[in-house]
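Structure first, sequence second, as always.
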């Protein structure tokens, strides 16, 4: 499905992608995760995203899930630069033997807030891992603008479709100042299905509300106290396609960030199979 710009549009025509997002596993194994990656590829997903943080390595999780795949892009979203230096990130990606032509390596400030740190890390990673696509995590206007200037992908988070449109304008402005193509715009869209879906979405949002001030500003700007949180909570999985469609249409890469009932592979795949009906 292609996105065709109309007059006044600030982003270029792009192929829309459907991604699947999961948490990093503490001790990922190919035995456990390779069936997940293989099934996602069979379902037609274009991207598999894994986060990176205290729970585990996103890169190691992707390496374990990639075992029986040949096509799906492997995306880490994102490695916090407050915790890991760009050289350590590049070393791990190389040591894991990840296919560099399918890797999308994302970075973010983590507990810091310096745009300069992100800019420098992207420059370093372009030298250390030539040809690898690089992503920047962005919430506010300055990071969106910087992402437009330096990244191949800008990864948004906790955003309603109109917030995505707002971010796209700032990303496009950044790209224009740098004289470069507009990056792909991706966003994690939380999806919970089955009994307790609404509770899982609310609990996940509460975790972010307790984090650094940028998330509080992001939620306040979208009036979540009045309208609820971005994302999808559907007790009936058949409702997911219609609810996800506005996000899919707003993005170059719509990443179904699953909130499964458990960490069992079958529960991750239950969310993936429900969302795949939109593509």
């Amino acid at each position: 499905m292609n996105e065709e710009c109309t007059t006044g549009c600030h982003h270029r025509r792009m192929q829309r992608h459907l991604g699947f997002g999961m948490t990093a596993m503490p001790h990922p194994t190919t035995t456990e995760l390779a069936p997940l990656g293989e099934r996602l590829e069979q379902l037609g997903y274009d991207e598999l995203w894994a986060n990176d943080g205290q729970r585990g390595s996103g890169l190691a999780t992707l390496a374990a899930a990639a075992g029986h795949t040949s096509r799906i892009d492997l995306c880490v979203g994102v490695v916090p630069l407050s915790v890991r230096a760009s050289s350590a990130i590049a070393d791990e990606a190389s040591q894991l033997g990840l296919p560099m032509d399918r890797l999308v390596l994302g970075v973010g400030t983590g507990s810091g807030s310096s745009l300069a740190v992100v800019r420098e890390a992207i420059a370093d990673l372009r030298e250390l891992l030539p040809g690898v696509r690089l992503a920047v995590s962005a919430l506010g206007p300055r990071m969106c603008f910087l992402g437009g200037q330096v990244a191949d992908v800008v990864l948004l988070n906790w955003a309603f479709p109109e917030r995505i449109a707002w971010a796209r304008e700032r990303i496009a402005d950044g790209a224009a100042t740098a004289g470069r193509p507009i990056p792909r715009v991706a966003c994690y869209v939380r999806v919970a299905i089955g009994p307790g879906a609404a509770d899982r979405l609310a609990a996940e949002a509460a975790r972010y509300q307790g984090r650094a001030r940028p998330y509080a500003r992001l939620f306040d700007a979208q009036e979540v106290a009045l309208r609820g949180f971005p994302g999808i909570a559907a007790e009936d999985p058949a409702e997911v396609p219609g609810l996800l469609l506005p996000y899919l249409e707003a993005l170059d890469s719509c990443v179904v960030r699953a909130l499964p009932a458990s960490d069992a592979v079958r529960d991750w795949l239950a969310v993936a199979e429900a969302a795949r009906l939109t593509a």
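Margin note: Residues 15-278 form a domain with the TIM Barrel fold (CATH 3.20.20.30).
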